[in-house]
Amino acid sequence: MELTTAGWLLLALASALVGLAKGGLAMVGMLSVPILSLAMSPVQAAGVLLPVYVVSDIFGLIAYRRHWDRRVLARLLPGSVAGIALGWATASLVNDAAVGGIVGVIGASFAVMTLLRPPAPDAAPRQADWTRGTGWGLITGYTSFVSHSGAPPYQIYVQPLRLGKETYAGTVTVYFAVVNAVKLIPYAALGQLGADNLGKAAAMIPVAALSVGAGVWLVRRIPQRAFYLFITWALLAVSLKLIADAVM
């Protein structure tokens, strides 16, 4: 479909949010599909933005190539691949809004509990364990496939590990780079990566690349406590948006 001037502006804004997410401000990327859905169907919006995610991942990987936690990725990715496969197998049966609403309730509950009872400064970080990692990885992979809303379940697992802010940003970047690369296969099989969508995505590469740089710049200058406070409030805001979409 052809985009109006307003449609291209919305696509540029959505692509900028994707870039900021890949620069380390992960939660803001979840706003991209809802914003672009103002100009096209949510299904096409997800298809157009997936290549933007993948290209932005490359820039994010370059920026955070030395800042990521192998243990976290090892425990999350097996379940995540299974979650993507489950999403692909049930693609014709799933109500995207309902899934988003469930994710929103979980994310909002976690954010509220975190804000009401923040961890003590000297509290020991939680260890990255296989049971929780596999379970939350499965949920993250599934919700990422059906609605690009994998960030809340990911954050619920990783935030209590209390990684350094750059390690957190790098780990989320590497993790979703792998997840998005795996998602290319089923998205192509479902016809979401046609020439029209790819052309629109290609036009947004400069916007996304500049936004990745802006995200990295912000992460490196925000104090760690403020960084975690920001991502918790962002999780709450996005979760409430998912709940609202499900109710509507």
TrEMBL record:
<protein>
    <recommendedName>
        <fullName>Probable membrane transporter protein</fullName>
    </recommendedName>
</protein>
<feature type="transmembrane region" description="Helical">
    <location>
        <begin position="45"/>
        <end position="65"/>
    </location>
</feature>
<feature type="transmembrane region" description="Helical">
    <location>
        <begin position="97"/>
        <end position="116"/>
    </location>
</feature>
<feature type="transmembrane region" description="Helical">
    <location>
        <begin position="201"/>
        <end position="219"/>
    </location>
</feature>
<feature type="transmembrane region" description="Helical">
    <location>
        <begin position="226"/>
        <end position="244"/>
    </location>
</feature>
<dbReference type="InterPro" id="IPR052017">
    <property type="entry name" value="TSUP"/>
</dbReference>
<keyword id="KW-1003">Cell membrane</keyword>
<comment type="similarity">
    <text>Belongs to the 4-toluene sulfonate uptake permease (TSUP) (TC 2.A.102) family.</text>
</comment>
<keyword id="KW-0812">Transmembrane</keyword>
<feature type="transmembrane region" description="Helical">
    <location>
        <begin position="168"/>
        <end position="189"/>
    </location>
</feature>
<dbReference type="InterPro" id="IPR002781">
    <property type="entry name" value="TM_pro_TauE-like"/>
</dbReference>
<keyword id="KW-0472">Membrane</keyword>
<keyword id="KW-1133">Transmembrane helix</keyword>
<dbReference type="GO" id="GO:0005886">
    <property type="term" value="C:plasma membrane"/>
</dbReference>
<keyword id="KW-0813">Transport</keyword>
<dbReference type="Pfam" id="PF01925">
    <property type="entry name" value="TauE"/>
</dbReference>
<feature type="transmembrane region" description="Helical">
    <location>
        <begin position="72"/>
        <end position="91"/>
    </location>
</feature>
